[in-house]
Write a structure and sequence with these properties.
This protein has 312 residues and is of the alpha+beta class. It has 11 helices and 13 strands. The chain is globular.
């Protein structure tokens, strides 16, 4: 594998989670005999990767400046292969509005939404989308800045919170039912969906705290869904992944309508968490792939959008 940099930390609102992910990956790769080193782009200039002879990067960054195509573009310019999807796929997936527009164009199901620019527009969206309604920043992850709005008088606080994270804010129809997630490994037609995980959070509130810092959330794998439903979700997630030109790995979040059993795509994460509470390692383990082997598999898939032509 050569000299490997595990990119962790970074400057996004998800820095704390990224540090946990990166340290886990770093330990796993070292246990497998890889010459791996931690590299925090918030503390070091990216050009040092080239100057210090790193041959590939494992991206354990989350959120902006790590999952949005920016660091991917820098690594493309330096010719250093990296894990996960490329520049365009990463940038599109980070933008929830753009992702939805593409999925809708491809005929994939996703909850109704409206982009809003003010408290007044948020209230109008609440009137149109109904209650409950989700208000969230367009370009954030880990439920940061997200509010489940139950009444019209909550719209102001919800919009303000989301706008603090990103000037682009969206309102989304809430789908009541089972919350599931499904990872994907691989590229193109060779990509495969891993086992679906059903998430049962306290009071149905799968927020930042319940994701990373408590043991109260239940993760069910096998997911226990009705016969055939898991396979349909895996097929939907694979289609969503390929539509965005996914590569290496990602994880899609899905809500299943309790009445119709229709699955709705929420978003896709192109640099999923790798902490002790994270879902991709949990799903991989259910498929017989250990955390260490998962990290090694992902590192082996490191690639470039535009690799240099082979010398003759």
């Amino acid at each position: 594998m050569g000299k490997v940099a595990v990119l962790l930390g970074g400057r996004s609102a998800e820095r704390e989670v990224s540090l946990m992910s990166g340290q886990g990956v770093l330990a796993a790769l070292k246990a497998k005999g890889v010459d791996a080193h931690a590299f925090d782009p918030a503390e070091r200039e990216l050009g040092e990767l080239k100057r210090e002879g790193f041959g590939r990067c494992f991206i354990a960054l989350h959120g902006r400046y790590g999952e949005d195509g920016t660091v991917q573009g820098a690594l493309e310019l330096m010719g250093i292969p990296y894990t996960g999807p490329g520049v365009m796929a990463s940038a599109v997936a980070m933008d929830k509005l753009m992702t939805k527009r593409i999925w809708i164009a491809e005929g994939l199901s996703t909850p109704a939404w409206q982009q809003v620019h003010s408290v007044e527009e948020t209230r109008a969206a609440f009137d149109a989308l109904g209650t409950p309604m989700i208000v969230k920043p367009v370009r954030e992850g880990s439920t940061i800045g997200l509010t489940k709005v139950l009444s019209r008088d909550q719209c102001e606080a919800a919009y303000t919170l989301a706008a603090q994270q990103d000037p682009m804010v969206m309102c989304e129809q809430f789908i009541a039912g089972d919350e599931v997630t499904c990872p994907v490994l691989g590229t193109g037609e060779a990509a495969q969906a891993l086992p679906v995980i059903r998430i049962v959070a306290p009071d149905g509130n799968y927020d930042y705290q319940n994701k990373y810092f408590t043991d109260d959330t239940q993760y069910l794998v096998p997911c226990g869904l009705p016969a055939g439903e898991e396979a349909r979700i895996q097929a939907l997630v694979l289609q969503a992944y390929r539509t965005l030109d996914g590569r290496g790995w990602s994880r899609a979040d899905v809500m299943i309508d309790a009445t119709t059993r229709t699955p709705y795509l929420l978003e896709i994460n192109t640099s999923p968490g790798m902490t002790s509470h994270s879902l991709v390692p949990m799903s991989a383990r259910a498929a017989g792939l250990s955390y260490e082997d998962l990290c090694l598999t992902l590192l082996a898939s490191a690639a470039l959008d535009n690799p240099a032509p082979a010398s003759t």
